[in-house]
Backbone:
């Protein structure tokens, strides 16, 4: 009885409804190896009343010499604002509907017109890439619509993002991570897992930065209740074909152009981020994977450089070397760190960047980094206080990391207090002439200690590194931005 009822209903359904229940299309094509690092668009028509789009991508020599990225542009065309999502090489299929979408893609209205799947050839075998897209459109009625739900980026509502000293309660030196991924791009961590780890790592702020998509930034409001004291900043890792960069301090729904390998296009996109109040940082400039290292011929459109990506290694040492060259050239580029954590066992907060901020807001953290008020440590529990005392007209003056002061003709005294660095460590003082002093940190057994040194007269800047001095270990455990002497 029950069975026959179901049969009748399903037989009747096509007669009752004027629309087919699904519409399927298959697109195919060939990409030549010469097209690697370009973008190929596969247009398709979306009829009125469509309420879901599913795309399934297959291609030749997958995981065997060919790699083809995947994304979607809607009926508005191929401009940045028409981007509906990006999953790079991480997914072979996605669905979008007005209320819900596969992470990495933005749900919302599905308007009729010409849409485009974007294919990004990343590597190719000599025969090229033969690709196929199976597109399925559905017409089920919808009753729910997606609404942007970004996290608040100001946890001190009493002041307007940038607190005065009186208003500032928990501001000052905030611990955070500028580079975090989730399932909204190529990570396996959910936002909730990343937030739980950040709390355990003692962080005050994190910036989610999924690759070429704002879709994670647009839904973080839901997760904020999990950790009301954690500032959840908005970022995108702009993953181009000539290097990766962080666009940090973004608005909800703000995208950043990534489809280029020319310096002018990067500079234009960076300017756009600045125009809206954001921060630009070059990521892992010497990373070893293809198109991950910095190829753009521009080291000045950025405010910061990620000199320390995940656990310290030789690519970080190379980044510090490049940063030192920029400092010697008189460029105020801020060194920051990022865990680049995607999946277990990587942890956010390794390394941790500590920023002098006027309050717990995205705007204050961005301002602090732009001002150079930042240092990096390997992880939880480690702190560096680096102060310079010098005579001034009003008596002895104390300045901190990021400050720019008039050089004193009689010199100055640098005081470094380090906390939480266990084992044998050394404090290295670095000026434009390189390493000027190395001092063993005499620590009290808990990893706390203090070093005082005279600042060489006529130094243009002074910065500090904390290094492992056990055996042949020389890795960096902490690193400050400079104090500048003008
Ligand atoms: C679609 O993607 C999901 C998640 O990545 C995957 O588990 C599933 O196997 C994919 N479907 C097909 C048909 O490949
Ligand atoms: C890249 O720059 C070229 C020349 O300046 C311009 O025509 C093009 O629109 C830019 N492309 C993107 C994706 O911004
Ligand atoms: C000080 O330490 C740095 C970093 O380990 C090293 O490169 C340099 O040679 C050291 N300088 C002296 C004088 O030991
Ligand atoms: C310093 O290096 C030694 C030898 O490689 C290692 O055992 C130790 O854990 C390191 N210390 C820290 C604080 O990382």
Residues:
């Amino acid at each position: 009885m029950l069975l026959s009822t179901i049969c009748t209903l399903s037989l009747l359904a096509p007669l009752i409804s004027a629309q087919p229940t699904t519409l399927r299309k298959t697109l195919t094509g060939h990409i030549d190896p010469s097209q690697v690092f370009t973008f190929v668009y596969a247009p398709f028509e979306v009829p009125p009343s469509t309420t879901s789009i599913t795309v399934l991508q297959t291609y030749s020599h997958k995981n065997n010499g060919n790699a083809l990225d995947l994304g979607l542009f809607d009926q508005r065309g191929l401009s940045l604002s028409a981007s509906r999502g990006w999953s790079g090489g991480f997914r072979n299929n996605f669905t979008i509907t007005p209320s819900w979408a596969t992470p990495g893609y933005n749900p919302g209205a599905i308007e009729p017109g010409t849409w485009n799947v974007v294919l990004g050839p990343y590597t190719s075998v000599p025969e090229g890439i033969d690709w196929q897209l199976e597109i399925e459109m559905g017409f089920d009625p919808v009753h729910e619509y997606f609404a942007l739900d970004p996290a608040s980026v100001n946890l001190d509502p009493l002041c307007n993002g940038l607190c005065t000293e009186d208003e500032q309660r928990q501001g000052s030196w905030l611990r955070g991570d500028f580079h975090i991924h989730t399932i909204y791009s190529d990570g396996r961590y959910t936002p909730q897992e990343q937030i739980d780890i950040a709390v355990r790592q003692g962080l005050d702020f994190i910036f989610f930065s999924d690759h070429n998509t704002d879709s994670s930034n647009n839904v973080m409001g839901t997760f904020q209740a999990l950790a009301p004291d954690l500032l959840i900043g908005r970022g995108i890792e702009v993953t181009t074909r000539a290097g990766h960069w962080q666009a940090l301090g973004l608005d909800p729904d703000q995208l950043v152009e990534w489809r280029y390998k020319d310096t002018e296009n990067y500079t234009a996109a960076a300017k756009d981020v600045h125009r809206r109040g954001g921060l630009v940082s070059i990521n892992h400039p010497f990373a070893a994977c293809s198109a991950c290292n910095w190829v753009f011929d521009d080291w000045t459109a950025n405010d910061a450089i990620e000199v320390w990506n995940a656990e310290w290694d030789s690519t970080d040492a190379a980044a510090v070397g490049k940063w030192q060259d920029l400092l010697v050239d008189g460029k105020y580029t801020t060194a920051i760190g990022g865990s680049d954590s995607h999946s277990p066992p990587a942890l956010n907060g390794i390394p941790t960047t500590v920023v002098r901020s006027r309050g717990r807001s995205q705007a204050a953290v961005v301002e602090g980094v732009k001002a150079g008020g930042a240092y990096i440590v390997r992880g939880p529990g480690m702190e560096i206080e680096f102060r310079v005392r010098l005579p001034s007209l009003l008596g002895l003056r104390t300045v901190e990391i990021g400050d720019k002061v008039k050089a004193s003709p009689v010199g100055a005294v640098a005081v470094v207090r380090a906390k939480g660095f266990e084992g044998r460590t050394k404090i290295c003082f670095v000026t434009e002439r390189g390493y000027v002093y190395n001092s063993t940190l005499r620590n009290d057994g808990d990893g706390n200690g203090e070093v005082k040194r005279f600042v060489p007269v006529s130094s243009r800047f002074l910065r500090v590194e904390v290094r492992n001095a056990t055996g042949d270990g020389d890795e960096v455990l902490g690193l400050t931005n400079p104090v500048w002497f003008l």
